[in-house]
Amino acid sequence: MRGTVDTYRKVIALTGPLLPLVSFFARLPVAMAQFGSVLLVAETSGSLATAGIVGGTLSAGQVVFGPVLGRLADRHGQRPVLLVAAAVNAVATGALVAGALGHLGTGALAAIGAVTGASVPLVGPLARSRSVALAHRAKADEGVVGAIHSLEGTLDEVSFVIGPALVGMAALLAHPAFALGGAAALVAVFGTVFALHPSAAVTAGSPAPVRAAGRRVRPPAVVYAVRGSLFLQGAMFGACQAGIAALTARLGVPGQAGMVYAALGVVSAGVGLAMGALPARFGLRLRWRVATAAGLALSVPLLFTDTLLSLYVVVTVLGAACAPHLITAFALTERSVEPVRLAESMAFAASSLVAGQAVSLAVSGRLAERYGPAGAFAVVGVAAALCLCLALITRVPAARSHAVTPAGARTATDAPDSGRASPEGSTAYAGR
Where in the chain is the domain with CATH 1.20.1250.20? Predict the structure, then answer.
């Protein structure tokens, strides 16, 4: 336990205590946007179909343009990309609120939703790549890099528990418009603060001439396998949501659906934080296989769940397999790609997760209508089984494929005095 605490202290020494806090609040709007847009449009239009279309275009915008923003961040640095994205997203979210309250047509709302999704600041992926760049520049060991992935995964999980909860509370106490208005304010303030944080200097980007010096190579096969695995994990999330909603509605307690799904996120976040205690010898290939095997084993009881208590128990336990898979997938991505393509690759990974969830929600929702909750929960099991197959058949390199020094960062031989710690070293952002 003490070793784990010491490892996380090293992480905070690298990033400073303010960066994780700011990045957490900057992630909340992402977690609030889709759910909030669906509730808002359903409330103002009276049509669930319209709400689904708007929510779908928002997800599609994020899936398609997320990797583009990541590529721009790799090329031009995180700061300018984040500043523009945060500003556009805040305006687009505000426009979506105004359009819904003004009863705009479905096409107009869908177009605004697409812009909202396309401009979502990639705070989660960019925070990962920024913190990893800080660790590599400070020549931190793999234990610290692993703890960074655990911490970032935990922040993601907590944000996706609190975000929808805030939307639900706003809808219950006042109106969904307040939730999306709050999301616009959060992204404008904390997205900007995250962009301007001094740590952004470590991700200043690689100009085109530097990137053109060598031939651009395709990522190794494991990267594509991980993206597929994340797509399937997203499918599990979407099917869980549909199945939970269907079962709680059948039991006459539809208001419990959000609480049940939140329980999954809370347990997942807790286990994710504990992942920092795993020793380095427990390698990524083994972690991937164990996490996906656990996901399959723990998803099977969903098919036989028919009471509210059993639903809480089964979903809560299933949450223990989610964070380990997500953390391992992002860690495999980070270890396998070129540092100058890290933000783009992290964005592709995050977009895969969102895409899987969106597709699964549409499919499993129809299955739940036709076959009941078990129809949706069957999708969870199938996706989990495919995840395990990918983990078993994919060759995972035993070591990093590329040098870890971030593009644009100083190396020890570049420093004016290699015998002294650089002023841009591991404690440069502590206390900010």
Answer: 1-206, 218-398
Most confident range (mean pLDDT) of 7-11, 57-61, 216-220, 253-257 is 57-61
- Contact between residue 218 and residue 60 where contact means Cβ atoms under 8 Å apart: no
Give the CATH architecture of domain 218-398: Up-down Bundle (1.20)
Q: What angle do CA 226, 233, 200 make, to 5 degrees?
A: 60
- For the four alpha carbons of 13, 19, 24 and 25, in that order, the dihedral sign comes to positive
Residue 190: alpha-carbon gap to chain centroid? 17
For the ranges 145-154, 158-167, 370-379, the lowest mean pLDDT is seen at: 158-167
pLDDT reported for residue 25: 95
Instruction: Look at residue 395 and tell me whether its pLDDT is greater than 80.
Output: yes
**In this structure, which amino acid lies at residue 317?**
V
* Long-range contacts, stretch 141-145, CB < 8 angstroms, 24+ apart: 141/280, 142/280, 143/7, 143/279, 143/280, 144/7, 144/10, 144/11, 144/14, 145/331, 145/334
The one-letter amino acid at 82: L
**3-state secondary structure at position 171:** helix
pLDDT number for residue 393: 95
Give residue 402's pLDDT: 59
Residues contacting residue 260 through CB under 8 Å, at least 6 positions apart? 244, 248, 311, 312, 315
Task: Report the distance separating Cα 53 and Cα 107, nearest Å.
Answer: 9
Closest C-alpha among 124, 126, 145 to residue 136: 145
Which has more confidence, 8 or 224? 224
310/304 Cα distance (integer angstroms): 9
Decide which of 3.40.640.10, 1.20.1250.20, 3.40.50.300, 2.40.10.10 is the CATH code for 1-206: 1.20.1250.20
Token digits for 413?
């031989």
